[in-house]
């Protein structure tokens, strides 16, 4: 079953299958942008629409009312890339280098590479997929890096994924996807890429099973390591018990405070980066995309906070493993986080601005959602 | 560099001349022009032809008139203008000279 889109080509309605419609729209949008500087743009666009309409009509009959995607694909190939007549004349009279010629054939210079979320073949939202396409490496490495960073940051790296999920645009049209790969866009390439994606689709589930198995294995190993560490500290406990107590009383609250401050600073910096493209007055270098800034910030945070977290864990272990202690420290840490948030909200006008604008956006979203539901 | 690649700009440059020659006859519809050119070296596509025709019309070398068709909306039929006819004869002369030059060179 395919969803059908009804379109009007020069005043006559046609029904196209949705994927075909997307392709045709991309083709016509591209044609329009190529004719940007041509004084005949409107006329040529109308001519092209009529030609497409005529070709659509040729495949329709009394018992066939919908133009399917394969037919649209063929029609687009038949129409050929749209080239402005002015451009062509310049290419012919000039030195007519092979490059210029090849450029005209494939439809202009390749589009600038951009970071997109690519949902096709994604594990979840396609953030890793998009980064892999952008960096032109296998997506497995990116996923591995994300998982490892998440483990080392005890889950905080995941926040980066969530932020990227909201900040990085999703590749909807074939042209977006072409830009995500930084490849020139043409129908043939589109077809070959679609075929490849389809073949990989079958492999995906097998791959996923393998992935889960590896994760279970990793989990078992971690549990084992934890067990060993606990046994080691239990053996040494009597000797360091008293010293540990003292450390626990003085040192742990300080470490908790530092760790809380780092977290608050990180979250505020992240929000300020996303909303205002600056981090505490330090603007992103010119030409650096936002997502690079986000990833760099998260890396920095993990690099700074990991030693502190290790000290806290070590301190807790040496202070004697008492369940009450752990809970107390957790609460103390949360208290610090809340306190620091409140302090920065009250005394830093920039922070208040960001938080208020976020609240406003959240409000707006909530209102929109409730209105849509009603 | 491939030989056909070398000849491609030549063909492109000549396309305008070819189109003028086609519309010099009877009034023609774009689909018919494509059909006519299909088996020749000048095979082309709508994506190229429509922009070129619009440019020629802006230069007042060709013009079109609307004609009703039995199926679908009216179609544009292209024909040569007097100015186009003058330019075509200039181009024809130029081409003849070019041929002669090419034939004479190296003899």
Key features of this structure:
heterodimer, A: 374 residues, mainly alpha, three-stranded mixed sheet, 13 helices, elongated, B: alpha+beta, three-stranded antiparallel sheet, 4 helices
Characterization of this structure:
The complex is a heterodimer of chains A (374) and B (107). Chain A is built from 13 helices and 5 strands. Chain A is mainly alpha-helical and 374 residues long. In chain A, the strands form 2 sheets. Chain A has a 3-stranded mixed beta sheet with strand order 1-2-3. A two-stranded antiparallel sheet of chain A has the order 4-5. In chain A, strand 4 (278-279) and strand 5 form a beta hairpin. Chain A is elongated. The relative contact order of chain A is 0.07. Chain B is of the alpha+beta class and 107 residues long. Chain B contains 4 helices and 3 strands, in the order H-E-H-H-E-E-H. Chain B has helices spanning 3-24, 30-37, 46-58, 82-104; strands spanning 28-29, 62-67, 75-80. Chain B has a 3-stranded antiparallel beta sheet with strand order 1-3-2. In chain B, helix 1 runs antiparallel to helix 4 (82-104). The longest helix of chain B has 23 residues, at 82-104. The mean pLDDT of chain B is 86. Chain A binds chain B through residues 10-12, 31, 35, 38-40, 43-44, 47-48, 50-51, 53-54, 57, 78-86, 88, 91-93, 96, 98, 101, and chain B through 1, 5, 8-9, 12-13, 30-31, 44-48, 50-55, 57-58, 71-73, 75-76.
């Amino acid at each position: 079953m395919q969803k059908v889109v009804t379109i009007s080509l020069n005043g006559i309605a046609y029904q196209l299958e949705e994927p075909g419609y997307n392709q045709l729209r991309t083709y016509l949008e591209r044609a329009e942008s190529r004719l940007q500087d041509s004084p005949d743009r409107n006329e040529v666009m109308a001519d092209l629409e009529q030609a497409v309409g005529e070709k659509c009509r040729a495949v329709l009959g009394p018992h066939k009312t919908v133009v399917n995607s394969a037919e649209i694909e063929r029609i687009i190939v038949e129409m050929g890339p749209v080239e402005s007549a002015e451009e062509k004349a310049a290419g012919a009279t000039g030195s007519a280098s092979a490059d210029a010629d090849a450029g005209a054939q494939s439809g202009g210079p390749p589009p600038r590479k951009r970071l997109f979320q690519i949902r096709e073949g994604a594990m979840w939202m396609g953030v890793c997929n998009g980064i892999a396409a952008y960096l032109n490496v296998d997506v497995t490495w990116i996923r591995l890096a994300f998982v490892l960073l998440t483990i080392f940051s005890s889950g905080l790296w995941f926040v980066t994924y969530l932020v990227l999920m909201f900040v990085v645009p999703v590749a909807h049209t074939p042209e977006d996807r072409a830009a995500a790969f930084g490849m020139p866009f043409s129908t043939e390439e589109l077809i070959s890429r679609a075929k490849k994606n389809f073949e990989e689709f079958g492999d995906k589930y097998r791959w996923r099973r393998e992935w889960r198995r590896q994760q279970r294995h990793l989990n078992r190993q971690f549990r084992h390591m934890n067990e060993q560490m606990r046994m080691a500290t239990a053996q040494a406990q009597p000797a360091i018990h008293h010293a540990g107590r003292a450390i626990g009383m003085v040192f742990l609250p300080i470490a908790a405070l530092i760790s809380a401050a780092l977290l608050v600073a990180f979250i505020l910096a992240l929000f300020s980066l996303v909303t205002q493209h600056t981090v505490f007055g330090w603007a992103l270098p010119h030409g650096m995309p936002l997502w690079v800034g986000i990833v760099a910030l998260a890396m920095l945070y993990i690099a700074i906070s990991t030693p502190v977290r290790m000290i806290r864990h070590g301190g807790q272990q040496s202070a004697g493993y008492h369940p009450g202690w752990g809970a107390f420290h957790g609460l103390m840490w949360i208290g610090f986080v809340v306190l620091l948030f409140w302090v920065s909200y009250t005394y830093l006008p920039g922070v208040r601005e960001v938080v208020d604008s976020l609240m406003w956006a959240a409000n707006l979203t909530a209102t929109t959602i409730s209105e849509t539901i009603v | 560099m491939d030989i056909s690649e070398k000849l491609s700009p030549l063909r492109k440059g000549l396309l305008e001349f070819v189109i003028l020659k086609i519309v010099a006859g009877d009034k023609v519809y774009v689909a018919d022009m494509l059909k006519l050119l299909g088996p020749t070296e000048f095979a082309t596509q709508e994506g190229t032809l429509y922009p070129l025709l619009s440019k020629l019309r802006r230069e007042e070398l060709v013009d079109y008139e609307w004609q009703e068709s039995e199926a679908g909306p009216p179609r544009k039929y292209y024909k040569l203008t007097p100015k186009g006819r003058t330019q075509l004869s200039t181009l024809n002369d130029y081409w003849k000279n070019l041929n002669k030059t090419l034939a004479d060179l190296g003899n």
